[in-house]
């Protein structure tokens, strides 16, 4: 078998062996993160948690998530993906179960902080895993498939969470049973991850030696190309002064702001459309995310064919901006339709964004820097629900919040389109060209 054939065979096996598992992991992860969107009314009725407290609690998850993200990903490099991703799943599953036993605002805040700390490192850990297992030209497609897990989770979480909330018994409400069952699903899945996942390509018994050699050789060759442009190993701390890293953080912050603004408040918008029970709200909640799955694959295919990733990210951010602005201008039904349109943009932006920093970063420091971008970007998940909750409690409307999200998406579209983001291994060559930017 030739080296190219062995590499193609290895990549094909990896996609079938690893990607489905990561998609399932992301589905249960995302459900445990955002399922409080379906219990807002119950938290208010049973525990007296108002709109502002709900928004703050929903967002506090992302504060502890951001604090522990980089340390978690550094520990993943030390202990290996198999052990560390299993640990993450067990602890976030138990923390999700603990949400069933909150008694008021203080315990609600504490459990959301604990859940964020437990989950920290999962997403950037998977992104880093791809840099160790897949050649550069395969990572964009893998990211699109992996990120479809969040869209699938948004599709499934509505009917599943709505159905589980119909359970009553053992002195507990349906929303408590929802937290317990969905949290325990993560713990059970962690056991499967431990037996199925391998930390390094050389550990994978399902790859032949030829396939392992071809894959490792290709990834090492990519690293040698970076080494040729860098005589000194870059550090994560030095990259904090790199303006392009700050651009990445800003762009992903804007994307996360819109995603979580829609995620945590969409069920409330749907409830205003009519007299719907929890299960019906869950079914309607699935519609925007079903649409977004199609959009993610469509835009990923267009970006792969016509290149210039930054222009495509800018395009979908403008779609998100238009949809979020329109959502604040009409009836609940019109708002729902507008968010369906916005979902095309903000979910596609999420999948199209990550290949840009992946191609820019040196693989030796990719893990902590990707974690940094993800953690700072995900602070949008704190700002959006906290702001929406405050606005609703003070004004009775979230129109100002929706307009703000639209403006942030427009700004991010302009930044990503006009920024000159060049892969780090190509910057030295650019500087040698006459007239190249300094």
Give the helices and strands, then pairings.
Blueprint: H1 3-17, H2 19-34, H3 40-47, H4 51-79, H5 81-98, H6 105-119, H7 122-133, H8 136-164, H9 174-196, H10 209-229, H11 236-239, H12 243-271, H13 278-306, H14 309-327, H15 332-353, H16 355-360, H17 366-377, H18 380-395, H19 399-418, H20 424-432
Helix pairs in contact: 1-10, 2-5, 2-8, 2-9, 4-5, 4-6, 4-17, 4-18, 5-6, 5-7, 5-9, 7-17, 8-13, 8-15, 10-20, 12-13, 12-15, 12-17, 12-18, 12-19, 13-15, 14-15, 14-19
Describe this structure in words.
The chain is mainly alpha-helical. It has a single domain (3-199, 215-432), classed as Up-down Bundle (Growth Hormone, Chain: A). It is built from 20 helices and no strands. The chain starts with a helix and ends in a 6-residue tail after the last helix. The model is unreliable at 424-438 (pLDDT under 50). Pfam families: MFS_1 (PF07690). Keywords: Membrane, Plasmid, Transmembrane, Transmembrane helix, Transport.
* Secondary structural class: mainly alpha
- Tell me the name of the CATH homologous superfamily: MFS general substrate transporter like domains
Straight-line distance between termini: 45 Å
Helix content: over 70%
Name a few traits of the molecule:
membrane; mainly alpha; Major facilitator superfamily MFS_1; 438 residues; Growth Hormone, Chain: A; globular; transmembrane helix; 80% helix; transmembrane; MFS_dom
Provide a brief overview of the structure.
The chain has 438 residues and is mainly α.
């Amino acid at each position: 078998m030739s080296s190219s054939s062995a590499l193609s065979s290895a990549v094909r096996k990896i996609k079938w062996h690893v990607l489905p598992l990561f998609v399932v992991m992301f589905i249960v992860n995302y459900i445990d993160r955002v399922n409080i969107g379906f219990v807002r009314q119950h938290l208010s009725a049973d525990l007296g948690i108002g709109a502002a407290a709900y928004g703050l609690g929903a967002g506090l998850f992302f504060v502890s998530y951001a604090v522990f993200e980089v340390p978690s990903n550094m520990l993943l490099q030390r202990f290996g993906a198999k052990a560390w991703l299993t640990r993450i799943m067990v602890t976030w599953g138990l923390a999700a179960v603990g949400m069933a036993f909150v008694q008021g605002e203080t315990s609600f805040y504490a459990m959301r902080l604990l859940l964020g700390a437990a989950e920290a490192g999962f997403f950037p850990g998977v992104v880093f895993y791809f840099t160790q297992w897949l050649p550069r030209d395969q990572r964009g497609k893998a990211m699109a498939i992996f990120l479809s897990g969040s869209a699938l989770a948004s599709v499934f979480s509505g009917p599943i969470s709505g159905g589980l909330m119909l359970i009553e018994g053992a002195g507990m409400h349906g929303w408590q049973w929802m937290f317990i069952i969905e949290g325990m699903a993560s713990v059970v899945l962690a056991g499967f991850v431990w037996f199925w996942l391998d930390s390094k390509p050389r550990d994978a018994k399902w790859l032949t030696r030829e396939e392992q050699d071809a894959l490792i050789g290709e990834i090492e060759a990519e690293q040698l190309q970076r080494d040729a442009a860098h005589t000194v190993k870059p550090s994560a701390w030095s990259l904090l002064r790199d303006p392009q890293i700050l651009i990445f953080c800003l762009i992903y912050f804007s994307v996360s702001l819109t995603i979580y603004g829609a995620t945590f408040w969409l069920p409330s918008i749907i409830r205003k459309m009519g007299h719907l029970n929890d299960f019906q709200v869950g079914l309607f909640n699935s519609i925007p995310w079903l649409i977004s799955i199609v959009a993610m694959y469509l835009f990923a295919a267009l970006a792969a064919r016509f290149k210039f990733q930054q222009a495509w990210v800018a395009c979908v951010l403008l779609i998100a901006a238009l949809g979020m602005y329109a959502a604040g201008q009409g009836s609940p039904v019109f708002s729902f339709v507008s968010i369906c349109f916005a979902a095309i943009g903000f979910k596609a932006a999420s999948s199209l964004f990550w290949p840009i920093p992946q191609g820019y970063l040196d693989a030796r420091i990719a893990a902590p820097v990707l974690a940094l971008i993800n953690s700072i970007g995900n602070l949008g998940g704190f700002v959006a629900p906290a702001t929406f909750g405050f606005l609703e409690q003070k004004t009775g409307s979230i129109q100002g919040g929706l307009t703000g999200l639209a403006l942030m998406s427009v700004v991010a579209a302009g930044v990503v389109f006009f920024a000159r983001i060049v892969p780090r291994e190509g910057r030295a060559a650019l500087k040698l060209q006459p007239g190249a930017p300094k």
